[in-house]
Give the backbone structure.
Amino acid sequence: MKALVAAIALVALPASAFAATSERDVLSHYADLAHAVYEDSLIAARDLQGAVNQFLADPTEENLAAARESWVASRVPYQQSEVYRFGNAIVDDWEGKVNAWPLDEGLIDYVAASYGGDSEENPVRRANLIANPSFTFSGETVDAGMITKELLADTLHELGGVEANVATGYHAVEFLLWGQDLNGTGPGAGARPASDFDPANCSWGNCDRRAEYLQTATDLLIDDLAWMTAQWASGGEAREGLVGGDAAQGLSTILTGMGSLSYGELAGERMQLGLLLHDPEEEHDCFSDNTHASHYYDALGIRNIYLGAYERIDGSMVEGPSVSDLVAAASAETDAALRERLDATMTAMGAVVSAAEAGEAYDQQIGEGNAAGNARVQAAIDALTAQTSAIEGAVAALNLAAIEFEGSDSLDDPEAVFE
């Protein structure tokens, strides 16, 4: 946790650092930050790919642990990119390929009896394509004999329009590396054995197909991240559309991403909902028990964008003209208030991380009857909602049209969650 706190201090630039900042400067630097964070996500995913390849070539517990560590490391830059989602349609339309959750993991592989069977909402909830080279959906036979990128991305992902049919991205890879977390709100993450991938000592059968799925899904993740990195490079569609468009609309795009991730997505759907239900199935990285870190880096991504600074995975800094500069020029008080709220959020998130690193995982913290853990998570939610109000203040200070941020029933109409 000390390293994270130190990194935060590095990006706390003085409000006057870029006093002569123009709106175009801010938009251009925002695109630079996007390129850096997606490029880091790609670099980290390639490290993951190497670890997965090593594990599949020699499926030992030690190599499985190394692949898991690489997966966790790959989440650090990616989660800081999520602030780009809600204002940038090109990102939001793409994001479901790489970070969709929760998923009905029985579509992919074996699951415990407690998982239950198929449902009217999802007739392939337990298709287990690793064990079944073909299965029936809507009266048609799905040929899964060859586990290819096209099969996963074009046929299986969100099959039948069911969002829980997640066949690609970080969480499909996570499930294959950890397996189900059957501990509820008790201690422990998924505990898939390395022998699930060892043809010479195969547990649960179909080790060759399971290995093929893991390698294909990891390779596909590389493809998707490479595509998005290119969109923010010089001449890329995302960059050119933002930087070359209306400046006020561009600033609204930035603040839409900040406010919507802060409120409806992170505070609401990812945190308040799970806390209200005390449900570990609502945690973001549910197989690996890495949810505390994912939430932390989501929040840090919001802060990065406001301050115009990002620490790359090699330790170098990307710094430049920021929204904070523009807000400070319009209202120093509004800028100071938002910076204070961003800091308060990181402090509250840091408490959740510290508890997890001390042995109390996020799913335990939201468990029913855990008063201290519940209060810790609620404090982070409250900090995010207060931060969102300060973001609204920045919108007003910049004289932008009012922005409607993403909402969540868990925050806006909690009773509806239990209906």
Remarks:
- The chain is about 60% helix and 5% strand.
- The beta strands are 134-137, 140-143, 309-311, 317-319.
- The two ends are 39 Å apart (CA to CA).
- Residues 88 and 123 are 33 Å apart (CA to CA).
